[in-house]
Design the sequence.
């Protein structure tokens, strides 16, 4: 293991609980394996949301792109380069209104590019970023894991699997809005799991 890419998706940036749990794990994993950590804070450095023009730029041959299209593609290239260079992806993922933060969706919209991170075949799409493992630190005000209301887990597994990243480990800290005692239990449980996974 050489490089860990840590994605913080919390509106609160590095101070958000999901970011702190992700950071604790990334630091422990890096210390155990001598890896470097690259942090992408999607609150502090938000990725542009996908537009028709930006989507068209992704499909335009490089030699035919306008200067604006070149800038749009360059932003995507940077994000893809970070992911390609990483052996492990660590994601801090709070739940907002039952879904993933829009910043995470915008990031995915820029790293999922046909012919670059996945390709279409006669048998369907094939991800080109296999060989990596992802760890997702999911924080929620309520308790949703294992229920029909947990729309995050299946979505994240689907989008990462689409890129070829099929080994995805989730660590949940739930019931954070149910009072200080429950919050402490949830954080303690997630912290114990961090120690197990980083060992």
Sequence:
């Amino acid at each position: 293991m050489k490089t860990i890419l840590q994605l913080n998706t919390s509106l609160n940036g590095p101070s958000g609980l999901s970011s702190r749990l992700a950071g604790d794990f990334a630091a422990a994993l890096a210390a155990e394996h001598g890896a470097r950590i690259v942090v992408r804070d999607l609150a502090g450095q938000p990725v542009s949301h996908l537009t028709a023009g930006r989507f068209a730029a992704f499909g335009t041959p490089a030699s035919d792109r306008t200067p604006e299209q070149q800038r749009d593609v360059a932003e995507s290239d940077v994000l893809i380069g970070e992911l390609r260079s990483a052996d492990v992806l660590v994601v801090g993922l709070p739940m907002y209104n039952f879904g993933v933060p829009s910043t995470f969706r915008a990031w995915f919209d820029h790293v999922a590019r046909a012919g670059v991170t996945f390709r279409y075949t006669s048998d369907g799409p094939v991800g080109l970023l296999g060989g990596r493992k992802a760890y997702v630190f999911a924080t929620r005000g309520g308790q949703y894991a294992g229920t029909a209301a947990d729309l995050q887990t299946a979505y994240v597994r689907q989008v990462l699997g689409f890129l070829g990243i099929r080994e995805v480990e989730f660590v949940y800290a739930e019931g954070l809005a149910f009072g200080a005692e429950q919050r402490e239990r949830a954080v303690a449980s997630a912290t114990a799991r961090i120690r197990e996974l980083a060992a």
